[in-house]
Amino acid sequence: MQNRLRSATGSPKEWIYFREESDGSCMEESVMPRLARLPSIPFGWYYVALQSVTERRIVTSQAELEALLKLLRATLREKGARLHAGYVAEREVHLVLQAGEGPLSAITGSFQHEHARVFNRIHDEHGSLFRLHHHVLLFQHQQWLVPLVHFIHWIPRLQALDDHQSGHWWSSDAVYRGGTKQDWVTTNVVLRMLTRGAYSRQAQEKEYRRLFGQAPEPSHIRLFRHGSAEDPRLLGDARFIAEVSRFTGRRSPDRARHVRHQKGDIPGVVMQVIEQFNALCDERLPHQAGTWRRLVTYDDVRSRSRKRPLPMVRALSAAYLIEHEIATAAQAARFFGSGPRSVSARRRRFYEVLFREWFGARPEILFSPGRHGDWSAERANDDHGKDLDAQLARNSRSSASVHESPCSRRRDPNPACGTDGR
Fold this sequence. Notes:
The protein is of the alpha+beta class. It has 19 helices and eight strands. The chain has helices at residues 2-8, 12-17, 62-79, 104-123, 141-158, 162-166, 173-176, 188-194, 201-212, 218-226, 238-248, 265-284, 286-295, 298-301, 310-323, 329-336, 345-359, 375-383, 386-400; strands at 18-20, 26-28, 45-51, 82-88, 92-98, 135-139, 170-171, 234-235. It has a six-stranded mixed beta sheet, sandwiched between helices. A hairpin with a 3-residue loop joins strand 4 (82-88) and strand 5. Helix 17 (345-359) crosses helix 19 (386-400). The radius of gyration is 28 Å and the shape is elongated. Mean pLDDT is 77; it is low at 1-32, 161-165, 255-264, 369-393 and 395-422.
């Protein structure tokens, strides 16, 4: 569990380019356009993650760490903000805070500028110390404050221990546990939420140790990185997001293209194709169903096996993933452990035509559970394109002949051949 969470917490660069797959592997993602910052919400609740630029550190000694905390405390008080949790290490700063009446950018901007100025003067250096684009998440505190503080306090255990071996780090976890007293860290809100309003400090700390002794949920960590499905800049329920949209005058972006960032999309599509394909075989090709049902499994589809009908299942799954912008062709090929030619547009068209020959229906039926019994309707909808399909089939077969085995080029809708080329 801890190794899985540690890989889930990486740097913002990893947040952009990689996501964890259901099998534990990482898949590279295409970079999405950066959304504009939302206007600040007075007294809004924010999670802010600052990172140092490449090959520079934010603090290099215990004295610098203490000076940074002193600056952070003064900045928050000057801007009327409250810190509810924090973690500071050599290359990163994580803050959970409630802003004051002014904009959040005044807090982050003033803090980063002043610390960089002092740091560069001491080290006789120049240039930016913090990355330009930091992570800001406006969240619904009634629902997410406790889980977010839980995550912040677990970062030292989830990440590599280089910073902690050198000793240049700080976490508000010790304040919550009663080990240190720092009056500029607000703890009563979280502790009272944990105990449903109880004022007993002993009861609060006991409940804190019980809950925060367990690792945070991996699904929560992904939400803190990427935000809600509706808007990556927000985290809350539908009512909260709607209220923020009305207040700021900014609509939530179209998240259809962002859905591919959510873990499980590709495996979910592939599992549905496998399930529906096997159901169609039972009903339409019963003499093949027994053999193919044993062959068409999740692991075999992701293997390099060329046994029929695995290449077809891969191609049809890829066609859906690409058409609905869940994955690119390259991402689909990597998921299936194959080369890009196996999911090329030409190969997808070939297997779409072959699917119609075998099953007398369009491939879309694989993604419409419950419709596969109505073969007459599917056939009627498909008749108008029969001539075009025949021509497409001839073109596809001739173009794919160098890649397909002779068995794969047969027109027999109930093939007995056991293997198929890709």
